[in-house]
């Protein structure tokens, strides 16, 4: 199939281009800077916030399937506010441009990246895709992020194309914040990620499995919203000490949950004390996908 990958220089996008080509697809890489493009059958250049440029790039590629792997989370370490604000624009304006361009180019299928950790912290410890999103989170930054996620999902589902939203778990592996040189790893190595009380659950996903889920979504005929997460949603009290040990860092000190927002910032405190995990049963059944790394124990902190 002719597949266009937007975000082809990213943590998931770059290996995804290679994986799709290895399966015989003809892949166009949509990039901002041609010099950094991965090896692809065609390279098209556009900033996805530039509507006219996106329409022209997608029409040149005439893709049957468009894959959206865009984010600005690379900015997280230096400027978290900008990272979230820019990513929100990519999820709203960028997605709208891609949908319009895909429809104009005769594309039939659209696969877009979302996140599996945007649910409101209500109900059981592990939630399915029907759980409400945390659009009214008390932190304005996170509420804005979740509203942008909801808008992306609405745009994909209402695009008139066969749409798949892949809600990725917290990514680990090469190039991610959890890689040995990543921002989270540096925080743990410096003893700056203490373990608060509480019951926050994280669902992880290795980057290779994010690629695998995207390949499965491209090749499937299923539509809908799916958690692409590993099989072992884990409380912070399990994964954080394991991660610190794998990194060769000191064990995280424990702190009362009530101090967590001040010590860690609202989002990290929420993730470690209250967030819910995400069940992957629907992706397994509908997409025929399963993680090759079923547990974060298979590599978190090791690469
Ligand atoms: N679920 C998750 O936990 C999750 C999801 C995504 C990312 N992350 C994390 O975010 C960190 C950074 O990853 P990353 O930035 O390398 O990869 P990325 O977020 O996976 O990739 C972002 C992609 O979007 C592209 N992009 C951004 N703005 C664009 C625009 N206006 N027009 C066209 N393309 C645009 C980037 O292109 P350029 O190369 O031109 O910037 C890049 O190809 C990693 O730690 C990763 O783990 C986590």
Automatic annotation (TrEMBL):
Residues 3-222 form the NAD-dependent epimerase/dehydratase domain. Signal peptide: none annotated. This is NAD(P)-dependent oxidoreductase.
């Amino acid at each position: 199939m002719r597949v266009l990958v937007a975000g082809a220089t990213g943590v998931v996008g770059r290996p995804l281009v290679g994986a799709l080509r290895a399966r015989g697809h003809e892949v166009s890489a949509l990039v901002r800077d041609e010099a950094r493009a991965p090896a692809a059958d065609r390279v098209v250049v556009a900033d996805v916030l530039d509507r006219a440029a996106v329409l022209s790039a997608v029409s040149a590629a005439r893709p049957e399937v468009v894959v959206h792997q865009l984010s600005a989370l690379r900015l997280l370490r230096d400027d978290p506010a900008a990272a979230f604000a820019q990513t929100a624009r990519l999820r709203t304006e960028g997605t709208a441009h891609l949908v319009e361009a895909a429809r104009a180019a005769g594309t039939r299928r659209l696969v877009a990246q979302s996140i599996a950790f945007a649910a409101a912290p209500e109900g059981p410890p592990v939630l399915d895709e029907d759980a409400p999103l945390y659009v009214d989170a008390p932190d304005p930054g996170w509420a804005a992020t979740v509203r942008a996620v909801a808008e992306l999902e609405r745009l994909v589902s209402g695009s008139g194309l066969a749409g798949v939203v892949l809600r990725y778990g917290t990514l680990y592996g090469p190039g991610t914040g959890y890689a040995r040189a990543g921002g989270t790893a540096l925080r743990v190595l410096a003893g700056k990620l203490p373990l608060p009380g509480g019951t926050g659950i994280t669902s992880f996903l290795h980057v290779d499995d994010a690629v695998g889920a995207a390949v499965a979504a491209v090749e499937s005929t299923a539509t809908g919203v799916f958690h692409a997460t590993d099989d072992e949603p884990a409380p912070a009290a399990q994964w954080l000490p394991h991660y610190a040990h794998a990194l060769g860092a000191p064990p995280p000190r424990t702190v009362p949950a009530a101090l967590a927002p001040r010590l860690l910032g609202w989002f990290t405190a929420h993730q470690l004390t209250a967030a819910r995990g995400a069940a992957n049963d629907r992706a397994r059944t509908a997409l025929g996908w399963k993680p090759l790394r079923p547990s974060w124990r298979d590599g978190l902190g090791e690469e």
